[in-house]
Amino acid sequence: MTAYGACRNAGLMPDEFVAVYGIGGVGTNIVQIASKVFNARVIAIDIKDEKLEFAQKLGAEFIINSSRVNPVDEIMKITNGRGADVAVEAIGLPATQIQAIKSVRAGGRAVMVGLSKAGAEAPYEINSLVRREVMIIGSYGGKTIARHTGNPRPNSQEHN
Prior knowledge:
The chain has helices spanning 2-10, 25-37, 49-58, 71-78, 94-103, 126-131; strands at residues 17-21, 41-46, 62-65, 84-89, 104-112, 135-138. The protein is of the alpha/beta class.
């Protein structure tokens, strides 16, 4: 359910490019769900060739071994300099979270699924994030977040 929740929380749409960082248990499920349920174009990123080959069998259109090349640069090449519409980070490392943020297009969505050790922080370039209007979305388990409806607490009852 974590993978489905990540795709839903990203607002993933057909034919959008989605970069999946980390092809472990959750990452492989994101590849499958993004490609087969949401009809997205999946870019799988990992450091192990066998995981990437498996991701390709599950529906990844592109694979990137980030131990050999810079994944952000490769994503820019794949998307003709635009960037991915969505990047999902399923590892929980500050370095890959930053890569996910850098790899999305202007107005893109970076979804953080991977958990890290307590107190871990990921520094990112504030001006780039703001000027490019990148959305950072946390996604935990199968929960899906309520989109803005005008009511900041959509599940609460109005109080007079």
